Please model this.
Amino acid sequence: MSETSAEKIVSQLTEAVHEHRVLPGMKLSEDEVGEVFGVSRTIVRQALRTMAHGGLVSIERNRGAFVAKPSIKEAREVFEARALLEPQTARAAAERATAADVALLEEHIAQEHAAIEKGEAGRALNLSGLFHVEIARIADQATIEAFIRQLVSRSSLVIALYWQRRTALCESNAHHALLDAFRDNDPDRAEELMKGHLVDLLSQLNLREGPSETRSLREALGG
Ligand SMILES: [Zn+2]
Model:
């Protein structure tokens, strides 16, 4: 019973983070979370620990739990790991993709577009991340799928903090092109497209050290 409650909190809070309704750095007070979900602090603590394990929450001694706030270094690492895993995974997915898989990905893109049209940017963002997870599922590599799921999940924090373009996230062109490569069962093209897509995503992040992060006021003003 308690397990089910903790799982429910994890899944709802995770979705809220993925959809940018709950933002990096936000305090997650045990009392408040407990009240919202109508559960005990023990269950809340259990849920927050699970989320900390997945990199979405950071638990600080004596301060409590917060939505994780990846540093520039961590942000870069998340995307570097994705660049390492996802092109190869897209290749494997293209080798295996069935008509049913392609139909599912198509449906996914359609839902994402519907969300954008309704102005639900957060939901669109979440769906666009899930497109990547779906590719890993098609590749039928469970271990890598779990890694990619976590990386995509943490990407939503990175995007909340460092994204510089306020338009649709994954360019739908890129996802459409990938879809075509899966439909044609073309591994080379799928791998190349995913490689390019991740480079493009990374280039949309502002991962330069901001002056306020590295310099004191004296240094900033005194040069
Ligand atoms: Zn994408």
About this structure: The chain has two domains: 2-67, 72-203. The two ends are 60 Å apart (CA to CA). The longest strand covers residues 57-60.
